[in-house]
Amino acid sequence: MKYHRSSLFLAFLAISLVASSEASAAFKPRSLLVSNAQHEGIREDVTRYEISQRGGDAGSKSSLSTAMFNLVKGIVGVGVLSLPAGIASFGDHQSAIIPAVALIAVMGSFSGYNFSLIGRICAYTGASSYSDAWQKSVGESSAWIPATACSAKTFLAVLAYSMVLAETFQGIVNTMGIRAGRAQTLITLTATVLFPLCSMKNLASLAPFSIMGIIGMLFTVGVMVVRYLDGSYALPAGKFLESIGKLPVFGKKGASAALTPNAFILVCMLSTAFMAHFNAPKFYNELENNTIERFNTLVGTSFAVSIAFFSAAASLGFATFGSSSQGFILSNYSSKDALIGISRIAVAFSLIFTYPLVFVGCRDGFLSLLKVPKEKQTDSYLNKLTITLLAVITTAAIFMKDLSFVMSFGGATLGNALIYVFPALMFKGVVKSMGDSATAAMKNEARFVTFSLLLGVGVGIIGATMAVKSL
């Protein structure tokens, strides 16, 4: 049995590596992503040579390696721990992992393409942010649409953080022999830890702790590898089976089950998991010598690493628990498992110190939507808004226990809009504004992104419907 499990693990690893290498290859300089790198954009002051050779303006920039690390860190978050449930939404046999990894690779590659597309839009228009790119390509009158979507997406991200913290800290205190409910745990944590951190006026001191997120995820996936290979949760005699709430369940729905509508739940979860696109302008503008070719190298490598990481986490969790995989996979593991206990602490520690960074983005988004002038953003006003938002988020996190639903529904609606629909509309706007100066290749790509737009809408509608039905 151990030999069989080791063989399966090697197969999963091989599939993940092949998938990520194929995704990286899709971003090679000769791909569609850079075929237009030497064509002038809307900005009259940016020459063809400047876009393709010099990149952005001089100044404080990030090296390629630093940008890669930061982008991977931005993509790989706690959402990865919900992906096993995405596979369980359509399959219960380990062969379901094969199409799942294929979907991860396809969605990751497509997400990466659109991330790169946003960077190119910034190169053509001189935009400095997602909303700015929309204003300069589509129009100012409708700029509230992407701004609202970005704010709502950030709100869902903070909600997901609170949900994970509730699960994680409840597991930690239970491991310590303290019986505490989900609501009691999260309310106490929010009042005593999260509110003081979110009320800080300068969050610069918390930035170094964001690295703990990727370290915690790496450690957790490593523990998942160990527990899968040693059979601690394997039927019928795994040593932790007696101390878990839901036993692993495996059936006959394998690879072919990926052809059923339920597979759209995983697809939409991946839209949330790969979501980093509202920061694409920042990565493009801050990249040292930000030519299109270098930006595509950044995007291709970062998304390939993320694809491999997502594939490993999703495969290992599902291979261990099958259709019993919960929305937060660590909830499947025993509270008596010391290694998993350390993983919970690592995840909790990283979330606590990155929570304020995400929350402030959410709060700033609401301030922008409410059009609150700077002079009215006093400490008292900000504290009241912080309390209100935390109260709403905490209440929602107490009653919403299925992280996979938040991931899938958020991906089906906001994720698909920000990744597929909005970039397509912006690029089509760029090509239209360029008129006769747009090349045949750019016009052909504008037709391709129309397909991307329609696909995003279609997948979003089906995915949102299936996510609601799964409740």
Automatic annotation (TrEMBL):
Primary localization: membrane
Domain Amino acid transporter transmembrane, residue spans: 61-461
InterPro entries: AA_transpt_TM
GO molecular function terms noted in the UniProt entry: L-amino acid transmembrane transporter activity
Transmembrane portions of the chain: 71-90, 97-123, 143-166, 209-229, 255-276, 297-318, 338-360, 381-399, 405-427, 448-468
Protein keywords: Membrane, Signal, Transmembrane, Transmembrane helix
One term under GO cellular component: membrane
Name by which UniProt lists this protein: Amino acid transporter transmembrane domain-containing protein
Taxonomic source organism: Chaetoceros tenuissimus
Taxon lineage: Eukaryota, Sar, Stramenopiles, Ochrophyta, Bacillariophyta
